[in-house]
């Protein structure tokens, strides 16, 4: 961040406070004057200028400090959507955005905020997906599967497919663009769990019936994912679709 940008943030922060009941930025009555109003306008102008120049991290911070939380969350969601599925391939950008988004999430959690509810839902979903992909990359499969099931983005049984397809049609594009990676990661974890069941040495204490039931359970999960991928109004990349189908076939 440039010195000028940092100075503007400091200046407006000294004239603006957050209401204890609202995350939306508001002016301190004791300090409100024409100068503070001008500073706020100047910060928002600088935010727009930073956005136009592609300096999105600066723009997000300036929009938030200047009181335009709607634009700050939209821009953060757009930025997150491009990096969440690649924990080890983006360099330092993803960790920075993740940290910045985490700070924003803490500031808005539990408050009524000056942003559209759908904007907030998209943002919080993307933050959760960032954690999901981190857990997947770290091979923390139990935690990752619990997260993605809690998100309700994809089905985990055949009976859920129709409902999730209908829900998909209402999702923001910044979420739907990551669905192929979500499906691949989830299927990979289900398949890894299935392969463990094929190795008797890793299953101490499980009866044959229990193993059979777990296999059937995982097979249905896999079938629900391939059924979902073929039903949503979205073009799943051919290589991803082939891998999904192949993993399901390998479980039979």
Descriptive report:
It is found in: Nucleus, Nuclear pore complex. GO terms for molecular function: structural constituent of nuclear pore. This is Nuclear pore protein. The protein has a two-stranded antiparallel ribbon. It is an all-alpha fold. 33% of the residues are buried. The chain is elongated, with a radius of gyration of 22 Å. It is 68% helix and 2% strand. The termini are far apart.
Brief overview:
The chain has 252 residues and is mainly alpha-helical. The chain has helices spanning 3-15, 34-52, 56-66, 69-81, 93-108, 117-137, 141-151, 161-168, 173-176, 179-197, 208-231, 238-250, and strands at 16-18, 25-27.
List the helices and strands and how they pair.
Layout: H1 3-15, E1 16-18, E2 25-27, H2 34-52, H3 56-66, H4 69-81, H5 93-108, H6 117-137, H7 141-151, H8 161-168, H9 173-176, H10 179-197, H11 208-231, H12 238-250
Antiparallel strand pairs: 1-2
Helix pairs in contact: 1-2, 1-3, 2-3, 3-4, 4-5, 4-6, 6-7, 8-11, 10-11, 10-12, 11-12
Helix percent band = 55-70%
Strand content: under 5%
Order the strands across the largest sheet as they lie in space. Answer: 1-2
Given the helix and strand composition, which structural class is it?
Answer: mainly alpha
Biggest sheet architecture: 2 strands, antiparallel
CA radius of gyration: 22 Å
Distance between the termini: 54 Å
> Rough shape?
elongated
Can you tell me the residue ranges where pLDDT is under 50 for at least 5 consecutive residues?
14-32
Please give the count of helices: 12
In total, the number of strands is: 2
Indicate the mean pLDDT: 86
Element order: H for helix, E for strand = HEEHHHHHHHHHHH
């Amino acid at each position: 961040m440039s010195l000028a940008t940092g100075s503007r943030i400091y200046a407006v922060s000294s004239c603006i406070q957050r209401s204890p009941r609202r995350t939306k930025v508001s002016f301190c009555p004791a300090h409100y004057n024409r100068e503070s109003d001008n500073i706020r306008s100047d910060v928002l102008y600088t935010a727009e200028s930073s956005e136009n120049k592609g300096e999105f991290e600066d723009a997000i911070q300036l929009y938030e400090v200047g009181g335009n939380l709607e634009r700050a969350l939209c821009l953060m969601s757009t930025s997150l959507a491009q990096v969440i599925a690649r924990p080890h391939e983006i360099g330092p950008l993803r960790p920075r955005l993740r940290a910045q988004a985490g700070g924003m999430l803490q500031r808005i959690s539990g408050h009524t905020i000056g942003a559209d509810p759908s904007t907030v839902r998209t943002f919080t979903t993307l933050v959760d997906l960032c954690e999901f992909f981190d857990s997947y990359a770290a091979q923390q499969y139990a935690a990752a599967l619990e997260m993605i099931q809690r998100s309700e983005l994809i089905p985990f049984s055949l009976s859920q497919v129709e409902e999730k397809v209908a829900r998909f049609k209402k999702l923001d594009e910044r979420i739907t663009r990551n669905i192929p990676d979500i499906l691949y990661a989830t299927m990979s974890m289900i398949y890894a769990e299935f392969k463990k069941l094929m190795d008797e040495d890793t299953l101490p204490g499980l009866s044959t019936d229990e193993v059979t039931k777990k296999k059937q359970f995982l097979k249905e999960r896999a079938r629900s994912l391939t059924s979902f991928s073929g039903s949503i109004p979205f073009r799943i990349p051919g290589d991803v679709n082939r891998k999904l189908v192949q993993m399901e076939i390998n479980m039979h």
